[in-house]
Task: inverse folding
């Protein structure tokens, strides 16, 4: 999308400015053939209006991280505006996370230092200990606040989330997809996006932005992340932020019965009220079951009677399926099939095993998502700050490695989102007190408007549904992201580069719903390129990254995370950052 | 079809806001209808949020055939 043409203009900009027909004609005259499906527009792009708003902190996202970012930023004295692609508490993975970790030093079964040592042992050093400690020591305070707001009283969290937000009169703008972060004079200046309901482009002029945009995947069947398309990572990457963790995977299994039904796959877990989890260290949700499914074929069982295929991912002694607690029962509430954020033991709802724990389980379900908090914006410090002044991230949008590159503590995902949302926004409020509101030049707004609307302006092109299906066909097979080898990663990358260069600039939309899908598709394509390049670079196997051609852990060369940024030539640059260090 | 039917809708719009993937929209009279079934992830949030139990969901899903190359 940001590939530069010889005239220094991205192809997308070029096509957006000139209109799709001319661009298409130029390509056709160059001998490139493609199919044209006319764009039957339901709205007129010319009638779309601009709406400007000013704020200190713009929180993007309305899940657990966004909730605490809004509340704590406000309480720290900043004017906060929240903008959500869906609605507060009903989008992203938060509605489906039923367990939240809490640490009470008085009753915990082990001391803090011993606990942190064990997390790092399970995570094979991939975790950032500062963030693991931060989540642990701050979890109880956040859980107490959630109790006060009524979070644990209902399986649906909109009401509980609305309480503190309404009490503080925090402005919430819902059903607006943010497509652009705006940077002026080397610092954040706001963000822009469009409403999916009315014909409005929203320009938010902000001193600081806290990205709480969650994780993402490739709109997989059977996993409730179809609204999560790594929008935060893609937007931040385009303005120069660094992105990490793209080689890791989330290994949730799917079900062969009704594979598209997220609700059914979790055995009614979505109906439960949330609960809390204590210390329980695992090495879960890596790709060991995916490896068995790859070698032996589906179905695989993750319960008793499963005979794992020989070889495969290394699981440190004392963790994972063969830990001292023995294999987990299929009706366990705390098994690896738990929902996003991990299910609580002793939840009030009916028992269910979750994906991968049923009698007809299959391999990877979350298709393109990484272990919680192992991918996202690179933090430069414990305040969740990015390389761009004023830009912060929290929760699954931040590559904090809080749990490591493997799922080490059930319920820590939700707790970490709450803790990081609060910390990021308190830091953002402090930053805001020392800066003036940056100016966004009209020419920048004009350019953003054209980029947002370009799929609507195109008379012919490719539908987001077709491009997404094509992308899924490239990225979801188990021999690409789960059981990796150089030849197939390179092959997939060639396809993705084609989608990046040829199809992204010709995505079309006939209405605002499709416009959202078009921008989501473009973001997924950026993410696919990152995932393949990081997977190629990491020539070892560790935690949730498994290379069939490099099956061993390489402690000599790979005690390091991979960060991705955009080079001056527009191409992706990958670099190592040693474990346990902050970026230079 | 994943959301099978909406029957007895009172037009409050709660399901529209509850849907993470923008499947449901309201008609001019306020009644909810299934606008974009291909994007339903069968998470049941619309059904669980509906105050009058108007929504019925099935676990099956079929995606419309997408025109080749486009």
Result:
């Amino acid at each position: 999308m940001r590939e530069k043409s010889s005239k220094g203009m991205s192809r997308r900009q070029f096509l957006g400015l000139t209109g799709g027909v001319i661009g298409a004609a130029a390509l056709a005259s160059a001998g490139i053939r493609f199919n044209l499906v006319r764009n039957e527009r339901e709205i007129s792009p010319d009638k779309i209006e601009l709406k400007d708003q000013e704020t200190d902190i713009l929180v993007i996202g309305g899940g657990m991280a966004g909730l605490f970012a809004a509340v704590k930023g406000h309480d720290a004295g900043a004017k906060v505006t929240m903008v959500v692609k869906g609605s507060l508490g009903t989008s992203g993975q938060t509605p489906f996370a039923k367990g939240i970790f809490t640490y009470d030093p008085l009753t915990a079964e082990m001391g803090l230092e011993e606990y942190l040592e064990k997390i790092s042992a399970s995570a094979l050093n991939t975790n950032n200990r500062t963030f693991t400690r931060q989540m642990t020591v701050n979890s109880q305070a956040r859980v107490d606040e959630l109790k006060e707001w009524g979070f644990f009283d209902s399986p649906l969290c909109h009401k509980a989330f609305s309480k503190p937000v309404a009490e503080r009169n925090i402005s919430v703008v819902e059903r607006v997809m943010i497509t652009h972060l705006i940077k002026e004079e080397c610092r954040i200046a706001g963000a822009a996006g469009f409403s999916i309901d009315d014909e409005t482009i929203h320009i938010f002029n902000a001193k600081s932005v806290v990205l709480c945009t969650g994780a993402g995947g490739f709109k997989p069947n059977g996993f409730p992340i179809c609204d999560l398309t790594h929008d935060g990572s893609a937007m931040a990457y385009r303005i120069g932020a660094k992105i990490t963790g793209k080689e890791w995977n989330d290994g949730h299994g799917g079900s062969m019965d009704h594979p598209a039904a997220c609700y059914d796959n979790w055995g009614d877990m979505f109906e439960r009220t949330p609960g809390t989890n204590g210390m329980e260290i695992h090495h879960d949700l890596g790709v060991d079951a995916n490896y068995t499914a790859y070698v032996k074929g589906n179905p695989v069982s993750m319960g008793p009677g499963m005979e794992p295929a020989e070889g495969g991912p290394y699981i440190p002694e004392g963790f994972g399926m063969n830990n001292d607690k023995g294999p987990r029962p299929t009706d366990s509430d705390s098994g690896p099939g738990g929902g996003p954020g991990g299910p609580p033991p002793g939840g009030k709802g009916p028992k269910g095993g979750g994906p991968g724990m049923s009698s007809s389980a299959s391999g990877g379900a979350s298709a393109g998502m990484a272990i919680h908090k192992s991918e996202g914006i690179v933090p430069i410090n414990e305040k969740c700050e990015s390389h761009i002044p004023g830009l912060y991230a929290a929760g699954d949008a931040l590559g904090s490695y809080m749990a490591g590159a493997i799922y080490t503590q059930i319920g820590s995902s939700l707790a970490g989102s709450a803790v990081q949302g609060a910390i990021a926004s308190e830091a953002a409020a402090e930053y805001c007190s020392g800066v003036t509101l940056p100016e966004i030049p009209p020419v920048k707004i004009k350019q953003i408007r054209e980029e947002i609307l370009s799929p609507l302006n195109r008379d012919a092109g490719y539908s987001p549904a077709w491009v997404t299906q094509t992308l899924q066909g490239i990225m979801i097979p188990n021999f690409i992201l789960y059981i990796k080898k150089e030849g197939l990663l390179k092959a997939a990358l060639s396809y993705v580069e084609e989608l990046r260069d040829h199809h992204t600039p010709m995505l079309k939309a006939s209405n605002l719903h499709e416009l959202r899908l078009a921008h989501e598709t473009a973001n997924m394509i950026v993410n696919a390129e990152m995932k393949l390049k990081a997977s190629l670079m990491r020539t070892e196997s560790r935690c949730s990254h498994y290379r069939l051609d490099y099956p061993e852990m390489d402690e000599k060369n790979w005690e390091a995370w991979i960060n991705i940024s955009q080079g001056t030539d527009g191409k992706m640059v990958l670099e190592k950052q040693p474990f346990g260090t902050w970026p230079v | 079809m994943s959301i099978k039917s909406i029957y007895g809708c009172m037009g409050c719009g709660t399901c529209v806001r509850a849907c993470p993937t923008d499947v449901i929209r309201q008609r001019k009279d306020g009644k909810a209808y299934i606008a974009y079934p291909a994007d339903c992830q069968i998470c049941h949030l619309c059904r669980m949020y509906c105050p009058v139990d108007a929504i019925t969901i099935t676990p099956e899903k079929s995606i419309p055939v997408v025109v080749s190359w486009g």
